[in-house]
Structure formats: structure tokens, C-alpha cells
């Protein structure tokens, strides 16, 4: 199946490096970053898994759980985890799904045969507490992901879910935001944006980040 933004992601039960996981139960009311890897013992993935482990405190601050996926089995994962911890100087602090039967890969459309025959591509899914897909990014196997960018997008999603703003190009937490064009009433603008705003064009109005 093809997952699109706003879709409810499918549930699954699958083995992992931390035991059997029912995805919905495991996720609970947290945000989730689910990211896939072509296979175990691959160099780029090894660096990525280490980077996510080092960023745990940043994900925790945002109420985000992380979970990886590879098509190899649990025994293979356990051996690979030792390599990750040794080479990346981390303790792996999140599960790796063992998707040997490609069940999760298929329902999340992670198999792109013209890219990698029968292996998962390098995909990231950001899923909100309502189990809605909020972001998907697909990378080629040769390119490692930037997880600081994933954190930046989560900051934007969590901000814009609660305030009538959008985030402009290269925005990062603390920067000015864009007021959504649908708000035009002066009284509503004054109520929602007590710090004021700068009109650049009628449709482009900048305001300090509302929750800072």
C-alpha cells in the first residue's frame, strides 16, 4: 500500500531486538520516528543507528520514541548491535524490528524493487500520537540521513499543531514564524499574536514564535 500524509498508519506485531512489539501498544500516546535500513552490517546504517542513540535525550524532550527496521532476523540484529555500540561509542537504546518476512516493509511500502531488489530503502516516517503519518522522507541507500533535520521538522509539527502559524524556510526552534493566511480579522490577530507581527505582504506576516 502507499501511505500518504494524514493517513492512519497500519498496526503490526513483529519481532524485534527488544522482544515482540505490537506497534500501536508500543507507541502509546507518543510521537514515533520509524526508520528503515536495507540490511544489517551495512556501513551507513551503522552510523545512523549510533546517531539516533546519541540523540535520545532530544527525542525524549519532544515526547518521541524511535524504532528502526531491517529485513534481517533478531539474531543478526543482536550481533550488529554489538558492532554499532563498539564503533559508534553508544549504547543502543531503542528496538530494531526484525522484518524477515517483509510484512512491515510491504504495508509501509518500503520495498522499491528498482532501487534495491527485495531490500528496504532508507525511509523515515514521523507518526503522531493519533497514529497519523505526518512526514515521510526516502533517501537512496548511499546517503545517510540527517536526524537533526528530523528533529527540526518535529519541532515545526508540534508547534504548528497548537498555534496558527507555519514555519518558513530554514526555520529552527526560536525563530520567527509565518501567520497562516486564513487569519485576517484584526481582533483575532491581536488575541493570537500579542507579541505583534510584521506585515511584509498581505499574505506574508512574520511573528515571534508564539510559545517562546
Number of helices: 7
**Helical residue percent band:** 25-40%
What proportion strand? 15-25%
What is the chain-wise order of helices and strands?
EEHEHHEHEHEEHEEHEE
Would you state the CATH class of the largest domain? Alpha Beta
The CATH homologous superfamily name of the largest domain equals: Glutaredoxin
Rg is 19 Å
* Global shape: elongated
Q: What is the number of E strands?
A: 11
User: Could you say which structural class the secondary elements and strand pairing correspond to?
Assistant: alpha+beta
Q: Which CATH architecture of the largest domain?
A: 3-Layer(aba) Sandwich
Mean pLDDT rating: 93
The CATH topology of the largest domain is what?
Glutaredoxin
How would you write the strand order of the largest sheet?
A: 5-4-3-6-7
Q: N- to C-terminal separation?
A: 40 Å
The major beta sheet can be summarized as: 5 strands, mixed
> How many structural units, i.e. domains?
2
pLDDT below 50 for ≥5 consecutive residues: which ranges?
none
Structural commentary:
Belongs to the peroxiredoxin family. AhpC/Prx1 subfamily. Belongs to the peroxiredoxin family. Prx6 subfamily. One of its GO terms (biological process) is cell redox homeostasis. The active site is at 45 (cysteine sulfenic acid (-soh) intermediate). Keywords: Antioxidant, Oxidoreductase, Peroxidase, Redox-active center. With 212 residues, this protein is α+β, with helices and mostly antiparallel strands. The chain folds into 2 domains: 7-159, Glutaredoxin; 163-207, Antioxidant, Horf6, Chain A, domain 2, CATH 3.30.1020. The chain is 30% helix and 22% strand. It contains 7 helices and 11 strands. A 5-stranded mixed β-sheet has the order 5-4-3-6-7.
Amino acid at each position: 500500500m502507499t501511505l500518504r500524509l494524514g493517513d492512519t498508519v497500519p498496526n503490526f506485531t513483529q519481532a524485534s531486538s527488544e522482544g515482540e512489539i505490537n506497534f500501536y501498544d508500543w507507541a502509546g500516546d507518543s510521537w514515533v520516528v520509524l526508520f528503515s535500513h536495507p540490511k544489517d552490517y551495512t556501513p551507513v546504517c551503522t552510523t545512523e543507528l549510533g546517531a539516533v542513540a546519541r540523540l535520545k535525550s532530544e527525542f525524549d524532550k519532544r515526547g518521541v520514541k524511535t524504532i528502526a527496521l531491517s529485513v534481517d532476523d533478531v539474531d543478526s540484529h543482536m550481533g550488529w548491535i554489538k558492532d554499532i555500540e563498539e564503533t559508534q561509542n553508544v549504547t543502543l537504546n531503542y528496538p530494531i524490528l526484525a522484518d524477515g518476512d517483509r510484512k512491515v516493509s510491504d504495508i509501509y511500502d518500503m520495498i522499491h524493487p528498482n532501487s534495491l531488489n527485495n531490500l528496504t530503502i532508507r525511509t523515515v516516517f514521523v507518526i503522531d500520537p493519533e497514529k497519523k503519518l505526518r512526514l515521510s522522507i526516502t533517501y537512496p541507500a548511499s546517503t545517510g540521513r540527517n536526524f537533526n533535520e528530523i528533529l527540526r521538522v518535529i519541532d515545526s509539527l508540534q508547534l504548528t499543531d497548537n498555534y496558527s502559524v507555519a514555519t518558513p524556510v530554514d526555520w529552527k526552534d526560536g525563530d520567527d514564524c509565518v501567520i497562516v493566511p486564513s487569519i485576517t480579522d484584526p481582533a483575532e490577530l491581536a488575541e493570537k499574536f500579542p507579541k505583534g507581527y510584521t506585515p511584509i505582504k498581505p499574505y506574508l506576516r512574520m511573528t515571534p514564535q508564539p510559545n517562546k
